[in-house]
Amino acid sequence: MLINQYQYMNTNEMRKELIEYTRNRKGITKKELAKLLDITYPTMLSKLNNPASLKLSEVDRICRVLRINLTEFLTINN
């Protein structure tokens, strides 16, 4: 029986994974995402490494750029 890898992830890890998965699926590089978010590459890496530290306005911008449903992103694992 296969165990779902997400079963053991915390909310922060799941959000991080969703951003990474969506970015890759859309063919957007990390540097391109930083440009789309209008932040420096190192800042983006730091913020995306810990999605729990993002401000709501930053989460909203990421969701709009990657076309992720904001409500679903905020209620992951609830």
Short characterization:
This protein has 78 residues and is mostly helical. The chain has helices at residues 11-25, 30-37, 41-49, 56-66, 70-74.
N- and C-termini, Cα separation: 25 Å
Please state roughly what percent of the residues sit in beta strands, choosing from under 5%, 5-15%, 15-25%, 25-35%, 35-45% or over 45%. Answer: under 5%
Integer-rounded radius of gyration: 13 Å
Number of helices: 5
Instruction: Report the helical percentage.
Output: 55-70%
Output mean pLDDT: 88
Question: How many β-strand stretches?
Answer: 0
**Topology order in helix (H) and strand (E) letters:** HHHHH
User: Which runs of at least 5 residues are low in confidence (pLDDT < 50)?
Assistant: none
Query: Which overall shape is indicated by the principal axes computed on the Cα atoms?
Result: globular
Q: Biggest sheet, open or closed, and with what strands and sense?
A: none
Topology at a glance:
Elements: H1 11-25, H2 30-37, H3 41-49, H4 56-66, H5 70-74
Helix pairs in contact: 2-3
Structural account:
The protein has five helices and no strands. The two termini are 25 Å apart. The mean pLDDT is 88. With 78 residues, the chain is mainly alpha-helical. It is globular. Helix 2 (30-37) crosses helix 3. The relative contact order is 0.17.
Give a quick set of tags describing it:
about 80 residues; mainly alpha; 5 helices
